[in-house]
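Continuing the batch. This is chain 6 of the set; chains 1 through 5 are on the previous pages. Same settings as before, nothing changed between runs. Recording input and output for traceability.
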Amino acid sequence: MASKTSTRSSRPAAGYRCAECGWTTVKWVGRCGECQSWGTVEEVGAAVARTTAAVTVREPARLIADVDATEAAFLPTGVSELDRVLGGGLVPGAVILLAGEPGVGKSTLLLDVAAKVAATAAPGVPSHVLYVTGEESAAQVKLRAERIGAVSPGLYLSAETDLGQALGQVEKLEPRLLVVDSVQTLSSAEVEGSAGGVSQVREVAASLIAAAKRRNMTTLLVGHVTKEGSIAGPRLLEHLVDVVCQFEGERHSRLRLIRAVKNRYGPTDEVGCFDLGEDGIASVTDPSGLFVSRTKEPVSGTCITVTLEGRRPLLAEVQSLLAESSNAQPRRATSGLDSSRVAMLLAVLQQRAGCVLHKDDSYVATVGGVKLSEPATDLAVALAVASAKTRQALPQRLIAFGEVGLAGEVRPVPGINRRIQEAHRLGFTHAVVPASPTGPGEIPAGFSVREVSHVAEALGLLISTGG
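Output for chain 6:
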């Protein structure tokens, strides 16, 4: 009995691990206790070291001073806003994951990038670019390429859903840029499961990344997103790739934004702006004009603010409309703004600034479909609502920004001087900003800045708050 007990205790204890996040448990459960994903907990044995040191090393380690950094120099894509987000362009051997909702323009953008990279090859450098599509036929991709002007002699198309065939195309063409649309449509015959499953996505990503690193080939992967907005497939996919970009945009708006969530070669606080039209997608180097209405005469209930998207200041307009309510509970409607934060600002205006709003239906929206989530837009929302209440328009060349607290105080926000400089560049002459210990910085000539510390002070500078 003693020998059986010792043998049983020496066996490696089996456990279970989540394929999404790596959470472990001693017994099987249907839902991961960490990431709350269903059906991702799989049985694994105890960790046993199986890999031993190689007898011969294929490539010995080198001193970091002896490594040639020019091999990883940035390659411009020809799309200025994408280069801005990536930190300068494409890095040879890098694997970039671009995720976004269906119809946002991922395939259109990457097809345009593929054509421009194929057309701008340096002398003596292979210009082959391979575009692997698993969702469309080659003829369908050709039609879209002709529509957006993305037909290039060095661009090759391959409609494949088999990973082995796609890797064979890479071996044959030896492209310097590979585009896979999308990673969830490829599958390997060596792995069980359907395309898009956890095991398949893991195998496809690992094989493509290995090929990219071995050939020093830049790879762009298109990724689907779930209804919650996260990238579909295992979280391991985001950890393996070098760059993760999110493509955002409203279906009924032409504006598209790209944000770098992860970037091993550049900043993660840059935002690229694009205009998606019938003839393709184009970079928008100065998007502030898209979010500001153009009216000859001042209109009550409007206020211009400056928000920071990454490190880029953008001008946006907030509009408010108040109407006497016929219901016991007035309506609070918002568009492009956080509804709970707008409701908080309405309460602050009534309790701290004397604006009687509990009998009015309130409608607050942004212009151009932009979404404003930064707290710095609070002061502009408050001024727009107060302007709508008194029906007195604010000056057309005035901007306002600052975070408003529940006590009515106006708190400092980052980048005050950067916002002022952007407003001055676009022709604005006055600004209401929060008072800060460091001050607003250098003020442009002819520009007037007024610092306020309370929302009532801001309203008193501009309009009467009676009513």
